[in-house]
Amino acid sequence: MKNLLIGQSGGPTAVINSSLAGAVSCGLNSSHFEKVFGTVNGVEGILKENFISMDKFRDEKLLNLLKQTPSSYLGSCRKKLPTLDENEQIYEEIFSIFEKHNIGTFAYIGGNDSMDTVLKLSKYAKEKNIDIKIAGIPKTIDNDLVLTDHTPGYGSAAKFIANSVKQLSMDSRVYDLKSVLVVEIMGRNAGWLTAAAALSNTENERFADIIALPETPFLPDSLISETEKILKEKNTVIIALSEGIKDKNGMYMGESINSLRAGQDSFNHAILGGVGRTVESLISASLGVKTRTVELSTLQRSASFAASSCDVEEAFRAGFFGVTFATEGKTGFMAGFKRISDQPYSMEIVPFDIEKVANFEKKMPAEMINGFDVTEKFINYAKPLIFGEPDISYTNGIIDFVIR
Amino acid sequence: MKNLLIGQSGGPTAVINSSLAGAVSCGLNSSHFEKVFGTVNGVEGILKENFISMDKFRDEKLLNLLKQTPSSYLGSCRKKLPTLDENEQIYEEIFSIFEKHNIGTFAYIGGNDSMDTVLKLSKYAKEKNIDIKIAGIPKTIDNDLVLTDHTPGYGSAAKFIANSVKQLSMDSRVYDLKSVLVVEIMGRNAGWLTAAAALSNTENERFADIIALPETPFLPDSLISETEKILKEKNTVIIALSEGIKDKNGMYMGESINSLRAGQDSFNHAILGGVGRTVESLISASLGVKTRTVELSTLQRSASFAASSCDVEEAFRAGFFGVTFATEGKTGFMAGFKRISDQPYSMEIVPFDIEKVANFEKKMPAEMINGFDVTEKFINYAKPLIFGEPDISYTNGIIDFVIR
């Protein structure tokens, strides 16, 4: 019997460990594997043979704790493998280490770069006729992987964003004066996360007044005039602003506006603060209203206390089925999601050919965007993904995590 | 029978509406009052006679929703009343409006400025022999009101901060490289909120490595060398940084460091970004490690989804007893907390003389601080205040609020 090796890579999410729990759970309970190992810091850990046993997760309480622990339990890396042509040696090295540790399946949980690793390793194994299955398990808050309906991690981040915008809007509207709040949201190229702010809106009440997405370049002036228009109807305008908004020339707005400015302070650092503060100063200068910026920061990808049950469970299933598919003989795939229906929401896990996934990027389609707003199509798509609140375990008011 | 008027003032908290719910609940169920009104935007609403009926909160479901709604349901204001000498007319105006609306008790929920209003109105009523009871109900995340053991709003903010720091620390430690995360926390003069980051620490694991408080002025160099020291032992250092940290001259560190810099950009604005980013750039320049700043922002005072049950319930009781004391004939007081014991935690609500509360500020005492850390005394004090997770109601993954 062979062993299972699992790794995590790329930026953390609130549920990447739930996928790890799913993969571990399948591995420990399958007659297919003798032992289940984790590689510390992804591919870097393979090269250093830094493997740890996952045996302690036979304890169901620990396994459940792993499901609610944000960020990568096994640690992460940002290593992108060279191509075979560039460096065949590294592939020989990796597979000899696999052989040495009797690895039969390597499951890699990660985003686009990690799927590229899955692609490269599985191609090498096929070419060299090595019987080691390489499985990809998707993970990214950005929701920018193709083929899969959505990615594990997106639902929890979307939920945190929508509820944060709602709470920040409540906070902003208390005084009897005009004000603007810019909420800067992650997503350098795709607007999925920023669009999620709209999930807080109802028919009677908008919390996210303006949704500014990287998919629709615009002039700063149009944002200012839209803000001004809404300020005539209500006291407080909330702008959900993607960090990746671009101007009409396709230039990142932050860079575009900052290039008009000094650009560097006297210590020779670039001016601090992201596009949110840049837009804040534009609006405050143009409209003369109190303007404030909130960057939702890395809490977007680590806020377990605001996670979506749907996301936590789906992430677990992606991990579980990713390993299951490998035991069925599949390799070179990503265990992605295929939506069966919106209402009632139903989804199945399928293995997508990794060649069709790796190195592509999924942006929001035009039919989900309507100027500074999203369409009903987006709402119907995203709404089920934030369903349900997991039963989080706390000790003395502090959320419980399992730490390596 | 007279009427009860309730107002809210100052910056919002996650539980100021729980105090409103308590005050309303007492008012609606007391034989003492005919009607219960809210004044919109605090004292400003009195002058405009902008009163609304609170009758809809006889519906228990709505009352419970009010308890979990962050920010001031009635709106807020920042108005500080002039002294009687400066402007007697405004007092005459307020009390004639009270008389016109048959107000027998005015309960004001707020922080220091609001307690000043309670002081001034109650003094005026006593001097003029007007039988209107003026009750103060404390509210502030800053925990800086004197006499009361702590303030409603502090526990939830402290809990959000401690859990955010723990989650951000998990997020920061995934890569195999040295890094520093600066978490900027509210509290311009008192370090209570920043100190709360330490509640995430356990005997085996520190999440908040350095606690930098406004009560202990320090040189930037000492922060850098402390960071450097810890970086030798572990990969990631988390600095819980008060927005109000001061240098040895008592100058706010942000201003002190920024005054060394250009100070103004080419648009003639002050350089954007708070003290966190200033410290970030210092550390990154001095130690050459990856450094990032997270500002916890106004989510600190509005994150209902991470509130403390202890705080929500105590806030309710403060509101309830604030009005109760008035029905017993008391006036010119603040309904504050008196701690009976730490373990098991027990607390009672008592009316403190408003003259001894208003316009004083409670900082952290020296015995709760130990350099860049807090002492056990602080932990024992703050620990019970973050206990318990309220059963929050959500619809389709979005937290439910009641909106005026």
Question: Would you mind describing this structure in some detail?
Answer:
Two copies of one chain form a homodimer. With 404 residues, chain A is of the alpha/beta class. Chain A folds into two domains: 2-141 and 148-153 and 304-360 and 391-399, Rossmann fold; 154-302, Phosphofructokinase domain (Rossmann fold, 3-Layer(aba) Sandwich). Helix content of chain A is 35%, strand content 20%. Chain A starts with a strand and ends in a 5-residue tail after the last strand. The interface between A and B is large, with 69 and 69 residues.
Q: How many distinct folded domains of chain A?
A: 2
Order of helical and strand elements of chain A: EHEHEHHEHEHEHEHEHHEHHEEEEHEE
Q: Structural class from helices and strands of chain A?
A: alpha/beta
- Radius of gyration of chain A equals 23 Å
Distance between the termini of chain A: 27 Å
Reported CATH architecture of the largest domain in chain A? 3-Layer(aba) Sandwich
Beta-strand proportion of chain A: 15-25%
Cross-sheet strand order for the largest sheet of chain A: 3-2-1-4-5-10-11
Instruction: Estimate the helix proportion of chain A, in percent.
Output: 25-40%
Oligomer: homodimer
CATH class of the largest domain in chain A: Alpha Beta
Biggest interface goes to:
A-B, 69 and 69 residues
Main sheet attributes: strand count, strand direction, barrel closure of chain A: 7 strands, mixed
Could you say what the CATH topology of the largest domain in chain A is called? Answer: Rossmann fold
Shape of chain A: elongated
Number of strands of chain A: 15
Segments of chain A where pLDDT lies below 50 for 5+ residues?
A: 261-273
Distinct helical segment count of chain A: 13
Mean pLDDT of chain A comes to 93
